[in-house]
Amino acid sequence: MKMIAKGLFAFALLAPASAHAGEAYVSVSAGLAFAEDSQNSGEITSTIPATEDFDAIPAGTPLEWRTEFDDGVNIASQVGYALDNGLRLELDVFYSQVDVDTHSGLAVGGAVIDSVDVAVLTRTAPSTNNPSVGAVIADGRGSIDTYGGFANVLYDLNKGGGVEPYIGVGLGYQWSNINYSPSDVPIVDADDGGFAWQAIAGVSVALSQNVDLFGQYQYRSAFDDAGVLVSLVPAGLEIENNQSVATAGLRLRFGGE
């Protein structure tokens, strides 16, 4: 995907824009965001001391669990320039939010501890009245809020037709605000940013001489997982944030002949 993106951006820079008339446009869109499950993984950063009931957990012990998300929302706006040869260049800013559905499979040192008394994490006394680790994290509360901007290169496959399919790629930067609070227990509340890419496919329908209706699918992914600190125990964690986005919007074209 990175090679395709570089090729399209190189083509965009080398295209003889002066030889092709074009028009500027602005657009807005809204729709649904579908986050892939995240396999959160990291390690204990400092030794968790032993208690009368539990052994110590040494620094460097692997830590991981799985998070599933509900469907969320995505809003975006673009400003761009469309050449008559079908090429479009645009700046794309967006915001998305997905809520946590559930967490499961908490493994410490490779051993899943979902059935263990939650006191193993809180370092309090175990009790038959305490819930299990799995019961606590299954009540998944929290969200991931993602926002950022992309430089997109797109190509309209039927330029000038009433219906114009298009494809494209984008490179940009995004920030993620991650909140994991299962059963109202704060585990993660942190931000991280990094470079990201997206693949785009859609179709535009002309409503009038200057207004298009479009539907669009995007697959958006960061090059690196978000790195955050865990607040319940001393640990660092990497969290995946890959999303599919389905939106519809309106594009206003102006400045063309």
Topology:
Layout: H1 2-14, E1 22-35, E2 38-44, E3 62-69, E4 72-83, E5 87-108, E6 111-112, H2 119-122, H3 133-138, E7 142-156, E8 163-180, E9 188-206, E10 211-222, E11 226-230, E12 235-239, E13 242-254
Which architecture does the CATH hierarchy give at level 2? Beta Barrel
- Structural class determined from secondary elements: mainly beta
Strands across the major sheet, in which order? 1-4-5-7-8-9-10-13
Major sheet description: 8 strands, antiparallel, barrel
Tell the overall outline.
elongated
On the 0-100 scale, what is the average pLDDT?
90
Percent range for helical residues? under 10%
Instruction: Compute the number of strand runs.
Output: 13
How many structural domains can be distinguished in the coordinates?
1
**Beta-strand content estimate:** over 45%
> What is the assembly state of the chains in this entry?
single chain
Assign the CATH class.
Mainly Beta
Series of secondary-structure elements, N-terminal to C-terminal: HEEEEEEHHEEEEEEE
Low-pLDDT stretches: 1-9, 11-19
- How many distinct helices? 3
Kindly report the CATH topology: Porin
Question: How big is the Rg?
Answer: 23 Å
Terminal CA distance reads 35 Å
